[in-house]
Amino acid sequence: MLVSNSRRRENVIIRGARVLDPTAGVDEVLDVRVDGGVVSALGHDLDTNEHHVLEGAGRVLAPAFVDPHVHLRTPGREDEETLATGTAAAAAGGYCAILAMPNTDPVVDSAAVLRALIEQARTDAVVPVGFLAAISKGQEGAQLTEMAELADAGAVAFSDDGRPVASAGLLRRALRYVRVTGRKLALHCEEPTLADGGQMHEGRVSAELGFAGYPALAESVMVERDLALAAHERRPIHLLHLSAGASVEALRRWRALGIDATAEVTPHHLCLTDEAVRSLDPQLKMNPPLRGVADRIALIEALRDGTIGAIATDHAPHSREEKDVPFEAAPFGVTGLETAFAALYTNLVEPGLLSLETLLARMSDGPASAYGLEPPQIALGARANLVLLDTGATWRVEEGAFRSRSSNSWLLGQTLLGRVAATIADGRVVYEA
Amino acid sequence: MADIRVMREHLLPPPPPARRHLLSVRDLSRADVERLLATAGSFAQSLEREVKKLPTLRGRTVVTLFYESSTRTSSSFELAAKRLSADTMSVKATGSAVDKGESLRDTALTLAAYDPDVIVIRHPQIGAPQVVAQATRASVVNAGDGTHQHPTQALLDLYTMQRALGRLEGLHVAIVGDVLHSRVARSLIQALALVGARTTLVGPPTLLPDGIEALGCELTSEIDAIAAADVVYVLRMQRERMAEGAAYVPSLREYSARWGITPERLRPAQVLMHPGPMNRGVELDPRAADDPRSLIGEQVRSGLVVRMAVLYDLLTTGPAPVPAAVAEEVA
After folding, report:
1. A325·B146 Cβ contact <8 A
2. What contacts B307, CB < 8 A, 6 or more positions away?
3. Cβ of residue A199 closer than 8 Å to a chain B Cβ
């Protein structure tokens, strides 16, 4: 389902890193050799031969990351991101695979658009990329897309991300029909009449700043509705970018009843609260919005206990002109591919809120499993999808240093701990710091 | 006349400008507020003279940039700057390059080319003054940004209350109406909390935002609650809030009956305030607006001296030296 370029796979050896694969239960200082893109040896003092050598001493070698939620803005807004720049940003962020959302212009709602994208990815993609297709034509929430043909053409899953499927009736039919494709629906939960015009989380801060509020309730009532529909139709669903404690509570309850529902959370919702919006910096405007402290704590707990299995950046590039406006006029969305690991290592792992092992699992195995992709792993015979992490290195997030075509990051100017030193995706070295 | 001489000595000449802004009441301390009100008081005295112009800001440039219609605020800022001998330039969204789709940032950069000392901006969107503050080197005064803040209105309201009632500390103010959409209310609640006054918000539950009590005020929907207040401050009820589909309140008729301010609802010792423009017959009975208890005309007069004080304060470094004698008199 993922599209790779056809460049030659390499022979690499990573020497003396702490090899950490939480899912496989590996945590040992080892050499790892990759031949023809496949892990061919794990051991001590392996021969380097003609292999390209990556020094791992003092670093962590982990299964590379998978981002289940990226906006590549292609087709339509290639000034903001292209397949080439978006996947290069992913490589720099330690990702070996990403999934692109279909809310482009035109929307990925026909096999023709999807096939053109896949064709382009075969030459341009730096790391393997999968494409979701829309649930409804034009994401207008009225008519289902030709899901069977889209799945045959390579759609990984279906989503109207960017907006909710407002009609419960349409979502129910989508859940029934998608069965013929064997794919999953990924749902953006937002009750439009409750979120209507909302600029930020409804609470103390919005009351003070005067913003129209986007209450947590707008998400959680939709999460409840969508889980109830999925349960009724006995279909698996994936819940996109959860932000509210009440949503997590609902998910936990339905999962306990045996419902097959997975979910993701973004680095910014894990690191920030609505207090940050006081700066009126448009780089802090996203949908769903940054929520309260209790919501943030609930998200971290859900990530720990596995209720939320995946971390997704919701990488949403915007041009400078679009974001250089008053907060109220700015579009929703921030970039995240190149900063996700460092942001989470700095704000969650370093202060002791999350273990490194859990972070690695939720950035790799979790998102891959949510979409039925083969999880990256460090094992003999496995395709090499590896990330080399320098957890002791600090770096400053600079506007000019992004590989992404856009720099609308909430972390501009901040100094972060933890840096991606190298990424091997699908057997190729795609990034070296 | 002796007082004025003392004052003029202190107001001349202004030292080089420190780059400071007035974007939100949140940026102010109690001392800042007290200093600004005292400065406004001393300007009020100067305006009683035959020649009303002071040379204080000669050579300085004040630009007003208005993206929303305004009578009171734009005219009082312009006159305030002129009274202090500053050069003024007013730019309105209509009839300027804004009409041609120029972005706020680019308009700000264009104006910055003239090296203005102060840019006074009114804009329908929250965060617009921050954009101007980032794009230029001028001191920026927020003259209203969307539903966020209108700090000079809050200052002139405090000034009016202090003049009429002789104190601010311990004063009880009831703010009545559409708090949810009111930048005036937000700034005033914060300003009243700063000076130790008590605030009660009164209005339909749909127009009182959850969480606003964190700014230090009480909330109620019972109009009878205004009886306990020294000041009844009535907010403008915008007709579009009652448009079909908005449905914050069912009808104008029901709103006026429940929350409209009539002379009968006011106690004899109470004073009435309104930031304007009024909707006579909606939030305010026309008889109440013209009642002797109304300070609405005073508020407009206060606008001039308070805005003079704000401009003066921004263009002089640190706390403006207000003569103790004048400060005492105002307090």
Report:
1. no
2. B76, B77, B80, B152, B156
3. yes
